């Protein structure tokens, strides 16, 4: 494939001029991110039941990304997973964005419905 810099990405037609090069550069960068993510994150039915894991390990990306989202320090994660680098974290984020979970996302209210106080008022007539 020819490199995108070899072409002129400008389209000139009468009074309109469009330069598509910024979009081509952005798409090329995102394609590289996807390629890197595919190299660092793998799935196999034989490993962890097909869950997405870091290449060469049995560490699911969901666990690591969930820990980071919960506020666990990256240095603490590196103690548990010495192979973990910033490139691995970025690859996991890109992989998760490319392949979202199927189905409707669960809502916290569906998992733990809010407790409601039910007040009942009983009116009894005095005995006559």
Structure description:
- With 128 residues, this protein is mainly alpha-helical.
- The protein has a single domain, classed as Arc Repressor Mutant, subunit A (Orthogonal Bundle), CATH 1.10.10.
- 41% of the residues lie in helices and 9% in strands.
- It is built from five helices and four strands, in the order ββαββαααα.
- The chain has helices spanning 21-40, 61-69, 74-80, 86-98, 108-111, and strands at 10-13, 16-19, 41-42, 53-54.
- The strands form two sheets. It has a two-stranded antiparallel sheet. The protein has a two-stranded antiparallel ribbon with strand order 3-4.
- A hairpin with a 2-residue loop joins strand 1 (10-13) and strand 2 (16-19).
- Helix 1 (21-40) crosses helix 4 (86-98).
- The radius of gyration is 26 Å and the shape is flat.
Which helices and strands, and how do they pair?
Blueprint: E1 10-13, E2 16-19, H1 21-40, E3 41-42, E4 53-54, H2 61-69, H3 74-80, H4 86-98, H5 108-111
Antiparallel strand pairs: 1-2, 3-4
């Amino acid at each position: 494939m020819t490199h995108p810099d070899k072409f002129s990405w400008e389209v000139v037609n009468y009074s309109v001029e469009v330069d598509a090069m910024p979009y081509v550069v952005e798409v090329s960068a995102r394609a590289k991110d996807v390629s890197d993510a595919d190299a660092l994150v793998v799935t196999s039915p034989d490993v962890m039941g097909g869950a997405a894991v870091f290449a060469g390990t049995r560490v699911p990306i969901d666990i690591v990304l969930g820990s980071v989202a919960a506020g666990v320090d990256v240095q603490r994660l590196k103690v548990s997973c010495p192979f973990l680098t910033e490139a691995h974290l970025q690859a996991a984020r890109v992989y998760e964005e490319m392949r979202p979970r199927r189905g409707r996302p669960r809502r916290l209210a569906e998992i733990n419905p809010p407790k409601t106080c039910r007040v009942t008022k009983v009116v009894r007539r005095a005995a006559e």
